[in-house]
Amino acid sequence: MKRRTFLTLLLTVAAARVEANGRPALRIGLTPVTLIESGRLLADWGRYLSERLHRPVEFVLRQTYHEVTQLLLAESLDIGWICGLPYVHNKRHLRLLATPLYEHKPLYRSYLLVPASDHKTTELADLRGGVFAYVSPDSNSGWLIPQVDLLRMGMDPKQFFRKTFFAGDHHDVVDAVASGLADGGAMDGYIWETLRRFRPETIRNTRVVAKSAEYGFPPFVARTSLPEDDFVAMQHVLREMADAPQGKVFLDALNLTGFAAGSTRLYQGIEDNLRLVTSG
Amino acid sequence: MTVLSNISYRYKVPFSLAAAILITAAAVSGWLTVQDFQDSREAVREQADKLATTLAYSIRHTLAHDDVWQTYQFIRSSGMGRSDDADAEELLVLDAANRVYCSSHPRRFPVQSALATDDTRYGPLQQYLAQSWQGDTHFMEDVVPGRLVLLVPVISEAGGRLGTLILSRPMQTLAQRFRHSAMHVMLPTALLMAVMLPAGWLWGRRLATPIRYLAGIVERVGRDPAVEIDIPKGTRRDEVGMLTMRCGDMIQQLRVKEALEKQLLASERLSAIGLVSSGIAHEINNPLGGMLNVIDTHLRFYSPDSATQKTFASLQRGLHQIKAAMAALLMEVRAESRDLSPADLEDIRLLVSHQAEDKGVSLHWHAELPTHLPLPAVPIRQIMLNLLLNAIKAAPSGSVINSRVELLPEHLAITVANGGEPIPKDCLDRLFGGKRLDLEQPGRLGLWVVGQLTRRLKGEVVVASVPGNTAFTVNIPLPAAKAGDADALHTPRGRNTVSGHGHPVDSDEKT
At what angle do helices B9-64 and B68-77 cross, to 10 degrees? Predict the structure, then answer.
């Protein structure tokens, strides 16, 4: 948490409103869904984007999707990388800018985790009466999907577990499950796999029990009032990263393979799940 | 106690000092250890209290908002939960229903489980919380076996109890602190003792030394003559100094007492002898007086011839001698005091000649005497008589007895020497004034009388006794000269007197 606060400060100060050509900085909101904890990497990516956009770029780090979404809605941010669920919630006020490609697909899954010492659990139903960790109410993979799974099992999500809590972000769900505080948890599979690639020690004490169906990857969205030029320019820069050598470096650091233009159809599954949960 | 009382001060004092040092060190170090431990214990409690109170305040919001994860983060921020050992510190948060809300060891204390679900050690605490706890902050020892437990209620802003924070620490922590305290105190104490005990022991022995010295002196009192016991010396003014001084006084007094006893013994002997002798003297003096009267009458009225006169005169002198001897024994010197003359010496020679002949001993006689000598005749006659009779008894048959009387510038020297076995040294020491008069030894009474008479005349007796020759020399100072100490008796190395056979000796030959 300390490190993230430091990064927020660092990036805000480092890239704060460096006005090139007299244009204000493009403010991009991020959450720890990215693994970019290296302030340098974010600063380099910021410079990369700034050079191609011919304007300064400012990354604003916030703890939750909810915070980023609220800042976008308040037009305190221009662009934000959020989860599909808050996008679906606020799609009338947010514009889909680009969808990251993970393993060349704009899709990801939700992972059901248990402690590595738990060799018995094979599915969500085995965690009945246990303690379950969600990410946040704004998380598709870390909340919505398990809710839907339970409803489809005919279970009441509020009664199924003995106790549930929100860990705040995906890394904390890993932490909660690994420490034994939670008997199970749900999180973004992309993050789990990226942790396994770059920081395997963090997921060592956890075990993936089940993987959900594929859903639209957390998108980059823009405020609806963002000028079209800026929107198109940013979209173009993101999509061409896969073709640029330096862009590939940043993509690899993010464990992504590229960006694609956004399609709302990708998030239909999330919307359907939301309807199911809110109606049930 | 008797056993302890009999232990020498040589060991008792240093041992007591060492024991005092040990007891003092043990008491002080024990007290310090206890104090240190209690301080540590208080410190542990205080630290635990601060931590728990701060945490309880911090988590009241997260508990109020039912934020398990944030509560867990607060717990982890305290540093607890890093070790899974059973002896590790534990932090638990219970909800209002006393179920586990969150803990530093989630696997041991699952969320929403009862306190003692997986760890039965907490059973008594669970029971206490349910039945007895008043909701106050306080410490409990051993309610969870081997652990110190602090209970802190988590109170909301509105004042209601949201839950309970439990801080559980192993008593081992306290035990470790106690061991640390003990080492902290005991080790320096032990080092100090290693120095002080030997020093104390040595000092104790030094303290006991003057007492032992005095004891050694006092031990000899009654066993050895006081004159042979050293008078203790010291300049101290403490109790030991006083004892030393009084001991010295005592030895002095004992010396005086023994000297008086000697004199008294001599007097008692004389008195004892006197008692016996007085009876005998009466039996002797009466016929003596009669005999002297007869001789006097015969000489006065019957005009005997010259040979008879000479014989009667000699008889008279002899009878007077006997009377004088009786007087000497009785300490009654009623005999006449007249000057010594050559005739007295001749009388003595005549008196002892016959006994010498009977024994088969030759008597060599040498006497140098002017007409009269201003010395009392009676005691000197007795001295010579006793010495000669003693020599005759001691000399073996066929040997020679030398008798010599010389008038020297300052004293009269009477020497009687005989052959035969020498006098043993221990007997020599007792001849003339020992504590006991050994009446079984022949001649002892006579020699003792010699000693007494010599002392009375302010003279000295010198005895030299070697195998084959024993010589007694009596030196009587002349009235005009100073004599030596009458009590001074010494036995120098042997002298030799020789020559003659029943006749006066003209010269001495040294062998």
Answer: 150
8 Å CB contact of A181 and B102: yes
How far, in Å, are A117, A196, A215, A230, B325 from residue A189 at the CA level? 20, 10, 11, 31, 150
pLDDT at residue B274 in the model = 57
In this structure, chain A runs to a length of 280
Q: What is the mean pLDDT of residues B80-100?
A: 85
H-type alpha helices, B360-500 = 377-394, 425-430, 444-456
Which amino acid, residue A226? Answer: L
- For A131, name the nearest residue in chain B, comparing CA atoms only: B111
Contacts of B317 (CB under 8 A, 6+ apart): B343, B344, B347
pLDDT at B493: 41
The mean pLDDT of chain B is 81
- Give dist(CA A257, CA A244) in Å, integer: 12
Average of per-residue pLDDT across B23-27: 87
CA B86 to CA A75: how far, in whole Å?
A: 53
- Sequence-distant (6+) residues with CB within 8 A of B9 are B208, B211, B212, B215
Q: Do A131 and B102 touch (CB under 8 A)?
A: no
Nearest CA in chain B to A164: B68
- Residues of chain A positioned with their CB less than 8 A from the CB of B72: 176, 179, 181
The residue written with tokens 């089940």 in the block is A210
CB neighbours of A89 closer than 8 A, spacing ≥ 6?
A69, A138, A274
Q: Is A216 in contact with A99 (CB distance < 8 Å)?
A: yes
Residues B259-265: what's their mean pLDDT?
71
**Poorest-pLDDT segment among A95-109, B22-36, B432-446, B483-497:** B483-497
B477: β partners: B411
DSSP letter string over A234-276?
A: HHHHHHHGGGSHHHHHHHHHTT--EEEE--GGGGHHHHHHHHH
Residue B494 has a CB neighbour count (10 Å cut-off) of 17
> How far is it, in rounded angstroms, from Cα B291 to Cα B315?
9
Q: What angle do CA A37, A41, A47 make, to 5 degrees?
A: 135
- Could you tell me the pLDDT band of residue A193, with boundaries at 50, 70 and 90? very high
Crossing angle of the two packed helices A268-279 and A145-152, in degrees rounded to 10? 60
CB within 8 A of B259, min separation 6: which ones? none
Give Cα separations from B395 to B420, B491, B492 (angstroms).
5, 20, 21
- What DSSP line would sit under A78-93, residue for residue? SEEE--HHHHHHTTTT
End-to-end CA distance of chain B: 69
